[in-house]
Structures are given as structure tokens and as C-alpha cells.
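re the bet — no i am not wrong, look at it urself. input seq straight from the record:
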Amino acid sequence: MSERNLDFDKVIDRRNTKSVKYDFAGAFGMPEGLLPLWVADMDFKTSSYVEDALAACAAGGIFGYSDVSTPYFETVRDWMRRHHSWEPEEAWLVRTPGVVFALAMAVKAYTQSGDAVLLQRPVYYPFSSVIRENGRRIVSSDLYLAEDGRYHIDFDDFEQKIVRENVKLFLLCSPHNPVARIWTAEELLRIGEICLSHGVLVVCDEIHHDFVFQGEHQVFVNLKKEFEQISVTCTAPSKTFNLAGLVQSNIFIPDLELRNQFKKEMSAAGMGQIGLMGLAACEAAYAHGDVWYRAMMAYVRENIAFTKRFVETKLPGVRMIKHEGTYLAWLDFRGTGIPAEELDQWMVQKAGVWLDGGSMFGESGSGFQRVNVACPRSILEQALERIRLAFARS
């Protein structure tokens, strides 16, 4: 048997498939007919091995309570070893219905009402919501955009915020969404040392860890033995293999006390087993999906290069931030003359595209747009051409 789903140019009609991206414009207050390149799922069929595994589950016709044991863990571990030079231990593994759920459980498990939780804006917006909606205080040590076209960490500000606000917990996004940074070992070690010295726990969202185009992803907890005492590492096959709708993630917590606190919070939330389909898909993807993964990565790499060329040659005043990781391009529209507060509506009303407005990632994202490039190139080109034509008509 060989991989069947390698035609990434094929346009698949996702309308009327219960797709959040395509079928719920009205629910989000958007007009119909927009070209959606917003929410972070791919418009590609996943690996045929995953399809076959799910079909086999469906053929059984019984969908009772399900669980997995050591062979499942070994498959996950082997993926991490092959792709990230990391060998987590089986005892560390906690399965959850998604990384955002895990972030929320960590906030509840490791902080009290009113405590400060640190993040680095602009950042994936659920980071803020799981802090705010659980009654904790958001503290941001904003990233800054340097002359090299990349975002950087202000380490002095980072440590000062921890001390001044008595920060208990830090939500780290690595690779960083939306600014597309692959943090270096040196950067992560410095962050970790600061957190160790001040007793701050680090919850690291590494869901985009398989999308690296420049540099090398560093598993935070694997950089120093002492980091095992303060780390929760959130991983999932959902971005890599386009499985977000199956809500299954693998969370690794080496410290027994931290792991028990996390599990207790899950129990309080009524969380038991993970669904059969998510478990089967994860195992099939990690065991047999390498050919599909490599082909998909090559295609997305070309989409990133295509987007960069298009922006540089056809969208005056727009700048694409240097892209190191994720399949989410971060575009700076501040040089176009469009007021930042009007940019989101301009995209919808003038260009007819639905992107993620930068301000949802924090005030420092104002004037930016996040573009999901994990789609057939013809769709990507159509979206960018709509933006170009909108500028031409302005």
C-alpha cells in the first residue's frame, strides 16, 4: 500500500461539510462569498493511511468508550524521536481533547483567581481567553519587530514583568503563532533560566512544531534536565495532519506533582476518555504518515515563497514578516495608508477575503493580517489577487 493523497493542487469543495472555515460566515458576522484563509486548518486531504484507519474504525460499527496503551505511546514517541530528537517517557503522557483545552486546564491547575499569567503578544488569541475567562490576569511581555524583519524577545522586560506582577505561569508559543518565529536554543534557554529562578511554570504550546522552514525546532523541556520540573509540553497531530476536528492532543508533564494537579483539574471538568477516531488517526498518522508529511511540507514551502514574491512585487506598502515556521504568514499592512482600525473591514468589503485580523492577537498586532497558506496554490493566488485588485481600485 502506498500514499494516495499527494495532489495538493486539487481544490476540494469544503462547503456544506460543517467546516468552520467555509460554512459559518454568517455566524461570525461575515457576508457570504468571501474567500476564507483564516482559521488554521488545511485545505488538503490528510494522509490516506489516516483515511483508511478511520474507515476501519467506522466499519466496526461500535463506538463505545475507548482507550489506548503502550503501543500508542511508542508510536507518538517514535515520531518525536525521528522529527525532534526527543524521547518523552510514557508516564508523562496525558491525552486531552485539544491543546486549547490543555492550556485552560493548566491555568486552572497551577494558578488561583486573580493570579498573573504571562504571555508574549502578538500571540494566538485563545492564550488570552483561557487566562481572562478563568479569572486570571493577563500580563504581556510584547515581542518586538526588529530591523532584521523578525520578532524578538525583550528579556529584560520579560523578567521585570515576572517580578513586578508576581507571575505564576507563562504560556509559551513555540513555534510562535502568528509571527512565525522558530525560537533558538539560546532564546529558550534564557527564558527557561529566568522562569526557573523565579519559580514560574512554563506551559509550552508546540502544536506547530512540525512546520519548520528555517532553523530547527527546539523542544523546550528537552533543553535542560531542570526544565522537567517546571514544564507542560502540549503537542498534537492536528496541525501536522489536518486533524483538528478529531480533537485529540498529547500533553507531556514530567513532574509527578504537576501531572497529578493537571489530571485532577481534568477530572473536575468531567473529562474522561478521548474519542476512538482521534486516537486511531493519531496513531496512523505518526506511524505511516511520513511520505505525506514530507510532500505536504514541500508544497507549503513553495506557497510561502509564492506569497513572499507576490507581496514584494504586487502589493506595494505591504511587508511579509520573515517566515521561519507554521503555515501562517504574517503580513504588515501599516505601510499601505489604510488605518489599522479599518483594515479588517477593508479586507472583507473591498477585497472579499476573510483573514485573521492582527488586533485579535493583541494590540501589538494592529495593522497586520494573518494568512493561512495551507491551501491549493490556485486558491492562495486568487486571494492575493483579490487584495491586489482592491488596492488598484482604491
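see?? The CA atoms of residues 143 and 153 lie 5 Å apart. told u. also The chain has 13 helices and 15 strands. so pay up
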